[in-house]
Fold:
Amino acid sequence: MQGSTWSDGIVGLLTGLGLPEMLALGIAYGIGAFILVNFGMISALLLIWITRKAISRMQDRLGPNRLGPYGLFQTVADAAKLISKEIITPSQSDFLAYNLAPVLSVFGALMLLAVVPFAPGLIGVDLNIGVLFVVALGSIGVMAALMAGWGSNNKYALLAGFRVVAQLLSYEIPMVLSILTVVLLTGTMSFGRIVEAQSLTIGGLNLGIGWFGVMMPAAMLIFFISSLAEAELTPFDLLEAESELIAGFHIEYSGMKFAMFFLAQFVNAWILSALMAILFLGGWQGPGVGLPVIGPILGFGYFFVKAYAVYVLQQWVRGTFPRVRIDQMMYFAWKVLVPAIVGLIVAQAIAQKLPFPDPVIYAIIFVANIAAIWLVATMLQRYIKGESLRTKRSFEPTSLIGTMQEAKEYAMY
Amino acid sequence: MVPLTGYLLVGAFLFSAGLYGALARRNAIAILMSIELMLNAANINLVAFWRYGEAQADLAGQVFAVLIIALAAAEAAVGLALIIAVYRERKTVNVDELDLLAG
Amino acid sequence: MPFPLPPLPTIGQLVFTGIALFTCASALGVVLARNLFHGALALVATLFGVAALYVMLEAEFLAVSQVLIYVGAISTLIAFAIMLTRSMMYGKTSPLNRQAGKTGLFAVLIFLALFGFVQSIPWPASAAPVLANESMIAALGEQFVTNYVIAFEVLGLLLLVALVGAVMLARDN
Structure:
């Protein structure tokens, strides 16, 4: 940890009162954890409201507008309803797995908040393995989904559990590799330092716009796409495809246990957008964060604006795109995203070892990123063209006239 | 400060439990899980000896622990693939029923 | 009155005792659980306990790798295998084989022998403070590409072989 952080102030105050340092540190972290956990819970209420409002605007509806100003308290009412509901436990459910799964999923989501840098010096713990910590905690969510699917003794829940594992593990790889590009560039896994590295000082003034997303747009895009899959949002929401799996692995849960899965999902989605803001959009960096008193407040504001902007972007995608097929989902992860990001990492590693000044290296990385985007876009375009042709032919055999091809080849699709 | 003995005892316990499971369970997956326990026991010892040892700077204990973790991943992947292939063929994963080669 | 009281346990020792008991209890759960899926859950708990022990040994990188690889990958694989072979779980047969009794005795003896052995040697009771953490991860990476480069490369090869082998074995033809 470097510089003065929030905990130093509290510890200083408490030791001044005559408490031993160990106890003071414990109390300081206790306060921090309390604030973070409650922040997670309360922000989930806000996130659900944002989601519903954003999606209804895209679908030309008003969304919640009855309770409170702009319907802000609708989620509170929903939460109260969920708490007061009867908890139904399916017969023959596996007691241990069934009851532990919602707890684990909330635990995994809230633990992530500990390493998010909200403002200069305001970070729960600036772990020097912060990136790895986030990736590791993601696996707890997978385990929770698997436990829920197995524990509820329902074949749809179990199928959804299998899908969760397949999807989350597949998309974890491009996500981790896209984070790796940032780690390669900064040489650290601590979120605090990654954000600090994105400053841009010109003439002694920190403009705070040296964002990695500008230099590495392809890595940012890959991170965004995989974060959509990790948050189980629409192009990749096969996990709760209503028409196939009813609701997903939490179908047998009711009342508060269901609410816990719901909460974990929204907090997860927000943290993924916050991560994108931290890794690629500069986190709390922005014009004027170097100033003495107003800087941290500005940084706090910048961070939240960016994180919520990315969150709304996620919801925008969710309200616009259709759901992909499961084979397309796996194809996209393994045959498009992973090769693209591996190629990028190789290019970047070579570029960073070239004996050029930094700006030239950054330019090479930028060019490699643009090339990757172009390549993936071309490939996708070809795939979509082929797919639409195939669909057309399977429905209109007349379109085969003059192509010298047999219709039966397409009839199976 | 916790004495080194504490870590070594936890390692010894995990190893003994894993040994019992590997020898006494019938299900091949349970045997695999027991082997994971034994590997973890070895890892605890390696890291504890690294922490309490003289040569902390060369990080040998941590290096070997990382190697063992990666090895365990490879072992689990191949082992479970084998188990699933056997299950497909014989409809059982009980190791004492897989005695085709016994004389 | 000079009656020698044992020194009060420090917070670190209390935390260690808790983690150690948790780890050992869940390890017992792994080998004794009748329901294989519960055994897998106990395995996850044990692996978390071991990760906590790594944190207490100030090897945070290892602790996080442990959670990432063991909990994220290996336990998920094991749970998958259990579900794919799940007709085995509800058998009326005992989960233990004929030699369970003898093996149990043997395992207890091994533990007692190790216990006596560990107790008999005067290990150092405390360790030197660990070097700064950030440099430790860098040093670990450097060890992998200098002193232990052969082990590292062979490990990469092994992982590739395991990947291909697992795909070949599990493929449905």
Q: What stands out?
A: The longest helix of chain C spans residues 60-84. The two ends of chain C are 81 Å apart (CA to CA).
